Amino acid sequence: MKSRLATILSHRILAVLALGFSPVLLGACGEAQSSETGSQSAAAEQTGLDPAGAAGADQESESSASTASLDSKTMPPTPKAEAAGLEGEIDQQLKNMLNELPQANQDPQANRNGERGSTAPALLVPQQEGSSSKIVFEVDKRDLGEIFQQEYDVDFPFLVEGTDEVIFTSLKPSCGCTSVEIQVDGKTVPMGTPIPGGSRGVVAAVFDSRKYSNRKSSTIDVRGNAANLPSRLQINSFIQPTFQVRPSVIRFGDVAKANLAEEAPSRVVKVIASKPFEIESWASLPDGFTVEDTGRREEGPKGKGEARFFKVAIEADAPTKQLFGAMVAETSLKLPLQITVQANIIGPVKYLPAERLYFNMVNQGTSPTKVVRIHPTDKELTLPEPSVEVEGDDAFTALVHTEKEGRRYGIRVQISPEAATGRHQAVLHIRWPEGSGLDDQEILIHALIRKPR
Fold first, then answer.
1. Parallel, antiparallel, or unpaired: how do β-strands 356-363 and 441-450 relate?
2. What is the per-residue pLDDT across 27-48, written as a single tens digit (0 to 9) for each?
3. Nearest to residue 165, comparing CAs of 224, 230, 107, 115?
4. Is the pTM of this model over 0.85?
5. Structural domains of the chain, ranges and CATH numbers in brackets
């Protein structure tokens, strides 16, 4: 029977351990076991027996008591009934022990760090009881339509439908573009605060679209003890830049330098802003360009914002080369305005390509050829034959080919079939005879040679 009782006790202990009370329970059980052992030792000392002998004496005493009961003609309980009774006593004692345990440590940081001082893990912190009331939102989706890059307040009004109070436990936006809080009667309510039944409030969000463009959606997952939670709220929008520049890039194309002295080419750009603005200063202007305010202002599309017009022109002394860059202005909206410009200023001679010649990927052992074409931009100009030189890498060779004397030339650049694998770079120098009045030209050459496949 003792073996059966030991089994019952071990099962009860395992059940309690599964609940997470192991440190305290083991201590309590240890104290009980120590007390029992101490009692047996004391009895042994008084009788002059060792603990085992004391235990034997106890057994003999039990046997004598049982015999006396039989002699008194009182029927003893059956072993099964006695075990059941002792099992009930064990259950009651364990319940009493659990009731006397200290409250679970509710410091989440201590539980996360596994501090030995905590008496129970965080999972024993009581969960919020469910509420019979519901959180009823007037709308669960907000479509902001076409908006600009700025912050927008977005509200989701709700009613606590029912008599029970409710608690919000979590509001989780899907991205950093949205911040959110609970407001009741115009006041912010901390998370976890009971809200009485029948109350009206809002999930108040701030949608920050400054870092986004085109279509953008954000969701808010709402959790709490209301009967119909969790639920999801959604914000949809189509985000336009704070400044829309039309055209997006001002392309002048090829511009003969000889014509700049007569009339500087110019373009008018339209800037649509989310609201009226002023230019505080032009922080950056690319070489060769100027910009000025035309003074023209209009109402923005659909009555939103403001449209302004600026004139961009090429300077008369713009350098002879490919020009590309961004004009950047500081504005009263505290956001920069950027206008991108491009122009290819050509002198009396046009080169195609003008700055870089790419072979891309080439199989070793082959000898592909690329051509740089040269012709005058002035119909009255006659070109002398240029000379060429390749500097830097012997993988390339270059020869001048006359297509039409005085008018068109081609520079044939070829890769040597003996060139090693790997990346190759060189500079093609195109030089004109002294006294021609023409400026020499440099073109970078690039190639990547690989083993044949």
1. parallel
2. 434 444 444 444 444 444 444 4
3. 224
4. no
5. 2-124 (no CATH), 134-240 (2.60.40.10), 243-346 (2.60.40.10), 349-450 (2.60.40.10)
